[in-house]
Amino acid sequence: MTEANTLTKKKKVDTKPLAGILKKYPAIGESLLAILQDVQLEYKYLPEVCLKKVSNKLELPLNQVYAVATFYNAFSLKPKGIYVIQVCLGTACHVRGAPDIVDELERLLNIKCGDTTPDGRFTLESVNCVGACALGPVKVINGDYHGHLTRNKIEKILKQYK
Amino acid sequence: MKIKNKEALEKLQKKLSKEFSKFETLVAICGGTGCRGSKAQKIVAAFKKEIKSRKLGKKVVVKETGCHGFCEKGPLVVIRPENIFYQEVNEEHVTDIIEKTILNKEILEDLLFEIIHEGQKKAKKKKAKKKNDEKRNLVIKEDDVPFYKNQVRTVFGQNGYIDPKCIEDYISYKGYTALAKVLTEMEPEEVISEVEKSRLRGRGGGGFPAGRKWRSCRNAAGEKKYVVCNADEGDPGAYMDRSILEGNPHSVIEGMLIAAFAIGSKDGYVYVRAEYPLAVENLAFAIDEARNWGLLGENILGTGFTFDIKISIGGGAFVCGESTALMLSIEGKVGEPRTKHIHTVESGLYDLPTNLNNVETWANVPLIINRGSDWYSKIGTETSKGTKLFSLVGNVVNTGLVEVPMGVSLRKIIFDIGGGVPNGKKYKAVQTGGPSGGCIPESMLDLPVGFDELENAGSMMGSGGMIVMDEDTCMVDISRYFLSFLVEESCGKCTTCREGCFQLYNIVQRITEGKGKKGDIEQLEELSVTIKEASLCALGKSAPNPVLSTIKHFREEYEQHINERKCPAGVCKALFEYEVDSEVCTMCGICFKKCPSDAITWKKKEIAVIDKIACTKCGICFEVCKDDSILKV
Ligand SMILES: Cc1cc2nc3c(=O)[nH]c(=O)nc-3n(C[C@H](O)[C@H](O)[C@H](O)COP(=O)(O)O)c2cc1C
Ligand code: FES
Ligand code: FES
């Protein structure tokens, strides 16, 4: 969390979009997940100021908001890169060699799965089944599917996003 | 435009089906996630544009449907009513399909499915693809494609016909007839009896009798009750539920409406995974449409019955597929399961009586009401009735969604429908039941699929994921894979699951690194028993299954890892080295050029040599070598 704190301090977070999001939902506990999902989508992570405001608005203890924010895979407390690479590590992709794809991406981007490149361009994540098992191994970059991957194809694909 | 009553619905169904029958041709383009991944939407756009510019709009209707099932060959385009099946279509084929097939009834051979027998395969590889000298075994009609021929598609039947974003489509295929029937002709008790008689069992994994669950919920004390649909589908490698929601969301809505009437509920929720954006989109659209047509909301079909559905989007946690965790998650909380000494039918969502069923379970309900429990209970085995959808994936020739009657053998599904294992490799195992299931070896392939049959084999049916594994799959690695998944996804509430899975993982991880010890296997077995006995929810109780079933059926593989420090499948990187087979090497040098670690030395007309110390075992040389001269030793 300390890393998230320093990052949020570095850049001031604009809370205007958050106000819009909060207006969309009734101020009840049930809205928490949906609100955090919208915040994640808008900011690409959950900034600390936003979590505090959400906790105030819904009258939930901040620790409960953090509990939810850290429990679900969909949320991240660290800002993500411009391009989010999601490599499928579902079982179908695993048996078709997905771990090698992760290795190769880690090597090329010089980061570990779950991290973001220092220039903020790429975040590398793993997901479990994106529902395109016929294309496996698959990765999704900002919504674009790339299927039938081999180690050899990856560098070329990454170049499209440089 | 609300539908006022049953008669109005029937009139509308007739009117719509007459309107649709005016079209001479229906172009059904698969818009499921798999085909979209291969740019199916561009094909849809191209078709629509050309049909418009050629002024064929009155004769030809283009529909973007949900997944047709045969994802392996996507993008798929089917020309109906002739049901001409075109595979691997791209934008450039569109003009030809319109000109030749639609207008002139000519078949485009290049887009047809071809049956290739084992023997032919190898010969084929060497020859250029299109050669006319040998007779090709081409299939024209969708139903004749072997993948579809052996299936019985009831739940999934309309997926290739209807546009999920067009409620009129669903209605024209007699949609909402079952709802009208229960609201006007049946008492809630009768509906429950009918579902009980059908012997429908929940498709989410547990196989609990749906009718019995409904009855308990109806009988539970309380004014307000909830009906919830579980669309969390956390089993990695399974995508049946998503495809139903994407392709035929109204069938799920109708199922929930019928249960709501039977149970006495006004409020429904669908809990969907966030990773399924298209399912969320199509479902939300369908709910809105149903509301606009008066099929959700107040006074449905003029009967005074009220029911509405909200969507709750999950946060990507496997454990939230578990009923009690799912309900907490809908409430906006952390999804940690609780003990079930009080059932959720009595105290579930917001501590009120809640009936939770899986997507596929819901989609079965309208069929049972329409065709009757007698018809339904004739399909399947003694204890498992109806059909079941499976997602047949992994090392299998025909990846896709398969619907078969319960009781069909695994062999039939994997070999007759799935076409067996690709690239001439040998079958090793099929994994069913996801992270709670197990691996089934060759010797048990004649097992009929059904809830109890698979459980007796040490696996479970789960929600229907079926991952085929070939000889290049290491079973110890598979066990490690599932354990790492479970360690990550355990909610951490109970000790045996949290710590136990972690210890199992550590041991198996050690074995894959070549640091296995004598007694490891026995310790895995012992720990597994404890985790099964003492864990709080079914996640922990079933977590050891992948370990136990691989030990049971592939014990010698564990032993080889431990005693000989060998991974026979060549997966565990610590246990093999890459080497060039000097007898096969053609000295092309591609491995040298591609090696990212400068671990290969090569000169023109010389055999490549791998420096085993510099080699990081990334495997690129193995992949790029065209002559299979890189060995794992
Ligand atoms: C860890 C865990 C994960 C589960 N995941 C799912 C799931 O993704 N989808 C589902 O329908 N059921 C899932 N279940 C089963 C549900 O708890 C529940 O039994 C089911 O949704 C009930 O519906 P059914 O009777 O129609 O099958 C899961 C259970 C456990 C223990
Ligand atoms: S397992 Fe990777 S897409 Fe399904
Ligand atoms: S996504 Fe097109 S057939 Fe499955």
Describe the structure.
The complex is a heterodimer of chains A (162) and B (633). With 162 residues, chain A is of the alpha+beta class. Chain A folds into two domains: 3-71, no CATH class; 83-159, Glutaredoxin (3-Layer(aba) Sandwich), CATH 3.40.30. Chain A contains eight helices and four strands; from the N terminus they run αααααβααβββα. In chain A, a hairpin with a 2-residue loop joins β3 (139-141) and β4. Residues 1-9 of chain A have low confidence and may be disordered. By secondary structure, chain B is of the alpha/beta class. Chain B contains 25 helices and 20 strands. In chain B, β3 and β4 form a beta hairpin. Residues 124-130 of chain B have low confidence and may be disordered. The chains are: A alpha+beta (162), B alpha/beta (633). At the A-B interface, α3, α5, α6 and α7 of A face α2, β12, β16, α19 and α25 of B. Bound molecules: flavin mononucleotide and FE2/S2 (inorganic) cluster (2 copies). Flavin mononucleotide (FMN) is lined by residues 202-206, 208, 230, 232-234, 318-319, 321-323, 356-358, 361, 463, 537-539 of chain B.
